[in-house]
Design goal:
Strand content: 35-45%
Order of helices and strands: HHEHEEHEEEEEEHEEEEEEEEHEEEEH
Helix content: 10-25%
């Protein structure tokens, strides 16, 4: 049996129950109306939201490499009370795309966005995304060893020339998309020696080229190293005379009709201390030997043979070439007419 108190409470609740429900609804609607009048909902476009790529290792573990062609940064339209909308910034949102199921044949990833501003997660409504997908370029990931070449441009200062040069290492490992890496033919270390007067030791960033000499950007390539070391000798020069002499006597009945040499002096390049010790190049006796010669002789002499270590020839020609023309002595009988001279006395006797 219910107590008198329980009956009274029940009657209190159920008495005019419909009117009470209506009153509650009216109160809620009134509150909404008041809120929207004082703080109405607004829409706002927010740009510059970075899209995070998650599970990218699922692609790389399959031997793929990817590049983002579009969708790395997006704009969204949000709706929220005006006081909240005015404060929203791009950093208040987290956007991401899941790459775990992507392949070269399925290269679009859905973009998802949520509000991360504290206390506003359920108040801000994301109405739309201006960009809904990340577009990827997915390719096989490959490695390639590319030869390094030193490309020297310009000329040293007057009186100096380029000597020996070296690079280290001689190759570089390139990793990236097969469509890009397979096009690379060489990597050049471009360096200008204009007006230089001293040996160069430097580090140079490689530039990649295809077989037609077209440059390939390295922005999306992984390199085993960022630069290579180079050394270029810049040597002073000096012009010295070449001294030589013919050795021996031509065969009997022959003589030297002509003698020509392609150069009288030569430009040398070496360190200053080496050059200071060289005054001329002297070809030893017996090298240009014409002893008992009865025909033309040609001598081609490598001048570097007579240079000290560390010295090189900087002239366009490095060999002394001597041509000796040898001709037979000609004998010819010349008839001289004899004229008889008569004196006046002899004439008178006649």
């Amino acid at each position: 049996m219910k107590s008198f108190k329980e009956i009274k409470i029940k009657e209190l609740i159920l008495h005019n129950f419909g009117l009470k429900i209506l009153a509650i609804i009216i109160a809620i609607v009134s509150w909404i109306v008041i809120v929207n009048v004082d703080n109405p909902s607004q829409r706002k476009t927010i740009s510059g939201i970075t899209v995070n790529m998650i599970n990218g290792d699922a692609l790389t573990s399959k031997g793929y490499i990817y590049q983002i062609e579009s969708g790395a940064s997006i704009s969204i339209v949000v709706k929220a009370p005006q006081t909240i909308v005015d404060e929203l910034r791009s950093t208040d949102f987290y956007a991401y795309a899941d790459l775990s199921e992507r392949t070269p044949d399925a290269d679009r990833a859905q973009i998802y966005v949520r509000c991360t501003k504290e206390g506003m997660e359920n108040t801000v409504d994301i109405v739309s995304l201006r960009t809904e997908y990340v577009q990827l370029a997915i390719d096989n990931k490959i490695d390639k060893e590319v030869p390094l070449e030193l490309n020297i441009t310009g000329s040293p200062a007057d009186g100096y020339v380029i000597g020996d040069y070296s690079i280290s290492p001689t190759t570089i490992k390139v990793t990236g998309a097969e469509s890009t890496v397979s096009r690379i033919s060489t990597a050049k270390l471009n360096y200008s020696v204009s007006s230089m007067t001293a040996t160069i030791n430097d580090s140079v960033v490689p530039v990649f080229y295809d077989e037609n000499g077209v440059e390939i950007s390295s922005d999306k390539l992984e390199l085993s190293r960022n630069s290579a070391s180079i050394q270029i000798e810049i040597l002073p020069t000096k012009v010295v005379d070449i001294n030589y002499a013919l050795s021996g006597e031509v065969a009997e009945g022959y003589h030297i009709a002509d003698e020509k040499a392609n150069m009288k002096n030569v430009k040398l390049a070496a360190s200053k201390d080496v050059l200071d010790k060289i005054t001329s190049i002297d070809i030893p006796a017996g090298i240009i030997d014409i002893d008992n010669a009865d025909d033309d002789r040609h001598f081609d002499i490598a001048l570097k043979t007579y240079l000290p270590n560390g010295c090189k020839i900087a002239s366009s020609e490095s060999n002394l070439k001597v041509d000796v023309t040898i001709e037979k002595i000609s004998e010819r009988t010349i008839q001289i007419p004899i004229c008889l001279l008569y004196t006046s006395d002899a004439a008178d006797d006649k």
